[in-house]
């Protein structure tokens, strides 16, 4: 019996081209930039501080361009 399946490499299936200057470049020329945000521990901020943090998140979301994904 003969193996009729074609062999392919992981690189040909994986959509990433390279990582340059801290950005991920895909084979479709999409650029991904990751940011790390550290939030305070739960129940350690006052309500005023919580409102300030929330307002900052809302402001940051409004200035992002179209087709951005935010995962919190």
In short:
This protein has one domain. The chain has two helices and three strands; from the N terminus they run αβββα.
SSE blueprint:
Elements: H1 10-13, E1 16-20, E2 23-26, E3 31-33, H2 47-63
Antiparallel strand pairs: 1-2, 2-3
Provide tags for this entry:
alpha+beta, elongated, 2 helices
Verbal overview:
There is one protein chain. With 72 residues, the protein is an alpha+beta fold. It has one domain. Helix content is 29%, strand content 17%. The chain has helices spanning 10-13, 47-63; strands at 16-20, 23-26, 31-33. 0% of the residues are buried.
Low-pLDDT stretches: none
Q: Quick check: average pLDDT?
A: 85
* Quaternary organisation of the protein chains: single chain
Q: Compute the gyration radius: what is it?
A: 21 Å
| Class per helix and strand makeup | alpha+beta
- CA-based shape: elongated
Strands, count: 3
Number of discrete helical segments: 2
What's the helix-strand series?
HEEEH
